[in-house]
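[job 0412] stage=complex_fold ligand=glyoxylic acid status=START
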Amino acid sequence: MSISAAKPRILVARALFPEVLDFLSQHFDVESNQADAAWSAEQLIDKLQGKVGVLSTGGERISAALLAACPQLRICANMAVGFNNFDLDAMTAAGVQGTNAPDVLTETTADFGFALLMATARRVTESEHYLRAGHWTRWSYDMFCGSDIHSATLGIIGMGRIGQAIARRGALGFGMQVIYHNRSRLDAATEAACGARYVDKTTLLQTADHVLLVVPYSTASHHTIGAAELAQMKPTATLINIARGGIVDDAALAVALRERRIAAAGLDVFEGEPKVHPDLLTVSNVVLTPHIASATLRTRRAMAQLAADNLVDFLVHGKVRTPINTPQPVARST
Ligand code: GLV
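[job 0412] stage=complex_fold status=DONE, emitting structure tokens
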């Protein structure tokens, strides 16, 4: 009788598709959180004892303190394209691999960016609330007039894969003039393929009818849109944030919306989410959704599977599929 080696132990930090857990169980001894309990930072550290890998979502903070307290941890595989929940420098210094889940969500997230743009510009949820409340008694010439999408100027801040997919929808599908601002300018062929023209941030804010944010969160992008930037936008403009909470100063936005300094906003992400700034809940000209831009079953399954593949690739085959850092060669505990 042969004695088989014990499987590496991993943690799945949130409830997940059963078929992805089954796949992981072929390779690992898996502790999962199918009850979807809300763990504190201390509980997460406790659960990670003895684990070499974790499948995290954007909600679990992987801090320097956690890494120090979990010396066996070797990989954190995020089921999200964004990874601002990771202290990446600390992970790199500690010899811990980080991976994210890019590409598989690009088109789905771009669809949602467009859905939020259309709902905001055409006042879809605001008018639905009015109807449900029984206020609709007759037609009037200016009832819920919004602003056009077709032929308008779309300004995209952050022109990565998702920004480019939104630009293509705008330019090719809706005949929009698409302008963008990004840390680095795209090459001419990519600009032509998505029908977008590079401009500086001030020009974008002053010119766009619809400003759409899809820039990754970092200390450098914190409050990319605050009171000063809102003041530069047209009073008829809309602002859409599908990037991350903290890219917009939500308190300043609530004031700008209430005082009609811009026409409307559509927000899928919030500073300190799932808490939402209370003033945003009381203004009518904002569409609010609970961070669901990538939420189709097909895409969420693909994101989960990609995170699982990263764990298997790294811990079983010694490779990485979608790495976000190059860890220092530091020996972790065994
Ligand atoms: C969602 O916000 C993601 O980063 O995947």
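The first strand starts at residue 9 and ends at 12.
[job 0412] exit 0
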